[in-house]
């Protein structure tokens, strides 16, 4: 797949009304959902639903149809999509399931079974060695500046700003290995003891440690997580050079392990600075969290 194709994940629940959306709509009803693949030529010609089928169809095409197709540049930006605030930073989170080994230690789970199959023995639903799921989030300049002590001194420790914790928890702590995740609504952060500790102060560097636990709950579902992170800030350039956070979380349903608990023993999450390059500022449309957060909750 990686050798012969360029993999693209598209949010079919929020198709923009601009050049990008027009190209997607031109593909017809062939796009896959829920992780199911659909393969096309660069010009949008459907080749099949499986890589092997698509590869064979590609080889049968005449040379003219195998040339790069023309896709209109993105000239406009659909106003229903929020603009990323000026001065904000983009963080990317990765997540995957965990399981316990024979000694009871947590390890990466090498097979994934969607939670919708909970209670149903469907071995064919298992995905072997899945890549991690991911999501993005923004931190506005006001929020990331709040992480920086105004007069830092080594060893100083303060509570992590609640708006930052809320943002990290609700937009990054989810499971998207197989499919999209439902959002945590505003107000679902129940508790947090996360702190920010100054590790080092130098002329060209400020090193911070983010550490602690938090809890989220919404209707019948709850989540507990422990986080540890290291942040490096460059005072001269007024920018983070490092924003690495790891988290281990456990979900509960009605006070008991969630249905997916029979298939995994926790979720591991890694958060880092997104260094994704953009073709132009017009293409800066990396939405934070999951799509419902933008259209249901209207968050910045």
Q: Can you offer a commentary on this structure?
A:
With 300 residues, the protein is mainly beta. It has 2 domains: 1-79, no CATH class; 89-295, no CATH class. 13% of the residues lie in helices and 33% in strands. It is built from 5 helices and 15 strands. The protein has helices at 19-25, 51-60, 141-145, 162-172, 291-295, and strands at 39-40, 46-48, 89-100, 106-108, 111-112, 127-128, 133-139, 157-159, 189-192, 195-202, 205-218, 221-234, 239-253, 256-257, 266-273. Strands 3, 4, 7, 8, 9, 10, 11, 12, 13, 14 and 15 form an 11-stranded antiparallel β-sheet that branches. A two-stranded antiparallel ribbon has the order 1-2. The longest helix has 11 residues, at 162-172. It is globular and about 65 Å long.
Q: Please state the average pLDDT score.
A: 80
State the separation between the terminal residues, measured CA to CA: 36 Å
Q: Number of domains in the coordinates?
A: 2
Question: How many β strands by DSSP?
Answer: 15
Shape descriptor reads globular
Strand fraction band? Answer: 25-35%
State the secondary-structure class.
mainly beta
User: Unreliable segments (pLDDT under 50, ≥5 consecutive)?
Assistant: 254-263, 291-297
Residues in helix, %? 10-25%
Most strands sheet: 11 strands, antiparallel
- Cα-based radius of gyration, to the nearest Å: 22 Å
């Amino acid at each position: 797949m990686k050798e012969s194709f360029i993999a693209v994940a598209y949010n079919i629940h929020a198709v923009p009304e601009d050049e990008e959306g027009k190209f997607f709509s031109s593909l017809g009803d062939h796009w896959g959902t829920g992780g199911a693949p659909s393969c096309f030529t660069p010009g949008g010609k459907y080749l099949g639903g499986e890589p092997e089928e698509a590869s064979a169809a590609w080889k049968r095409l005449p040379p003219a149809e195998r040339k790069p197709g023309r896709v209109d540049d993105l000239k406009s930006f659909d106003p229903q999509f929020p603009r990323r605030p000026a001065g904000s930073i983009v963080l990317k989170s990765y997540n995957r399931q965990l399981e316990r080994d024979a000694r009871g230690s947590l390890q990466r789970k090498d097979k994934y079974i969607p939670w919708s199959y909970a209670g149903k023995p469907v071995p064919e639903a298992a995905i072997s060695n899945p890549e991690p799921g991911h999501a993005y989030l923004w931190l506005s300049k006001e929020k990331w500046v709040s992480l920086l002590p105004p007069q830092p001194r080594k060893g100083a420790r303060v509570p992590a700003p609640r708006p930052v914790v809320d943002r990290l928890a609700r937009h990054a702590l989810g499971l998207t290995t197989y499919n999209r995740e439902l959002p945590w609504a505003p107000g679902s952060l129940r508790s947090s003891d996360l702190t920010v500790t100054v590790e080092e102060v130098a002329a060209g560097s400020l090193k911070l440690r983010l550490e602690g636990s938090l809890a989220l709950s919404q209707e019948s579902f709850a989540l507990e997580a422990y986080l540890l992170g290291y942040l490096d800030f460059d005072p001269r350039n007024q920018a983070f050079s490092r924003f690495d956070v790891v988290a281990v979380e456990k979900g509960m349903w009605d006070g008991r392990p969630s249905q997916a608990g029979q298939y995994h023993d926790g979720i591991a999450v890694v958060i880092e600075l997104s260094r994704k390059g953009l073709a132009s500022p017009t293409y800066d449309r990396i939405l934070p969290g999951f799509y419902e957060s933008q259209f249901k909750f209207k968050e910045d």
